[in-house]
Amino acid sequence: MFQQQSKVLFNEPVSDAYYKIGLACSEHFSMAKAGQFIMLRTTRQTQPLLRRPFSIHNLIINSGVTEGLEILYKVVGQGTALLERQKPGDIVDIFGPLGSGFLIPRQAGRIYFVAGGIGVAPLVFLVSQLGRRNIDLSDCRAFIGGRKREDLLCLDDFIQHGVSVQTTTDDGSAGDQCLVTHPLEDVVEQTKPDIIVACGPMEMLACIIGITEKFDVPCQVSIETMMACGMGACLGCAVEGRDQPDRYLHTCLDGPVFDAAELKF
Ligand SMILES: Cc1cc2nc3c(=O)[nH]c(=O)nc-3n(C[C@H](O)[C@H](O)[C@H](O)COP(=O)(O)OP(=O)(O)OC[C@H]3O[C@@H](n4cnc5c(N)ncnc54)[C@H](O)[C@@H]3O)c2cc1C
Ligand code: FES
């Protein structure tokens, strides 16, 4: 894990309230795994005091050298509003990569990616890492859901790797008007994947875990709890484990990616 002052390379709107920021980083980040995150704070801020966690959305690689990383973020409060104001050349404070990443078994050829809203951020990194390893993704599918059209992000990132994409919205403004778990369940019933990987709201993840248990499919989920320190010191990110009563896991250290069987939802 490394702390560094990182120069903003770009900071651009992607959709309603969503932005993508590019940050220069050291070559150490080349070992980052999809699902890992950074803690970030703009350097001149006093409020909010605490760093905020963000998934690594992608690496910026030039001639084989890792020069930066990308974060896809949604402005929801004070910290992300400050981030939105950063200009190229500004400096932010980051440390990472932190936490666990997705562990895709070598033999898994049929992977179903499921994203709700901003939950798509780490899954894009996963699909591009798999693509970089020249893994054939043509049997894989992505299910991307959001409240409305503007919440459906990064569809092309999946399509360009040969992954077929199905979209849903709550208001019917794009894709099917239903929850993203509906088409997922239909497809899983017909063709079981080797693994499901998911990131999004807790209710969505709970429903996906129900589906994977019903059809006996392995599943890894990336969860986004509140975090204060990001390194196991504050207990702010504790989630209940499933195997032993009263056993709590740290999202920042034991996660954010968990085997679904580890968590009590
Ligand atoms: C491991 C991890 C990875 C994450 N990756 C991303 C990412 O790639 N892109 C992104 O946009 N966000 C991501 N988040 C969520 C992000 O950290 C929060 O949106 C951010 O901390 C909000 O900061 P703020 O100061 O703008 O909002 P605050 O003022 O702190 O909060 C504003 C509102 O957002 C809610 N909120 C804050 N944090 C979370 C959270 N973790 N989950 C749900 N609601 C929250 C608060 O309850 C409040 O209602 C991630 C969180 C975790 C734990
Ligand atoms: S965020 Fe402090 S212990 Fe996990």
Would you give an account of this structure?
With 265 residues, the protein is an alpha/beta fold. It has 3 domains: 2-98, Translation factors (Elongation Factor Tu (Ef-tu), domain 3); 111-224, Rossmann fold (3-Layer(aba) Sandwich), CATH 3.40.50; 225-265, Dihydroorotate dehydrogenase B (pyrk subunit), domain 3 (Ribbon), CATH 2.10.240. The protein has 5 helices and 16 strands. The strands form 3 sheets. Strands 4-3-7-1-2-6-5 form a 7-stranded antiparallel sheet. A 7-stranded mixed sheet has the order 11-10-9-8-12-13-16, sandwiched between helices. Strands 14-15 form a two-stranded antiparallel sheet. The mean pLDDT is 93. The structure holds flavin-adenine dinucleotide and FE2/S2 (inorganic) cluster. FE2/S2 (inorganic) cluster is lined by residues 227-230, 232-237, 250, 252. FE2/S2 (inorganic) cluster (FES) is lined by residues 227-230, 232-237, 250, 252.
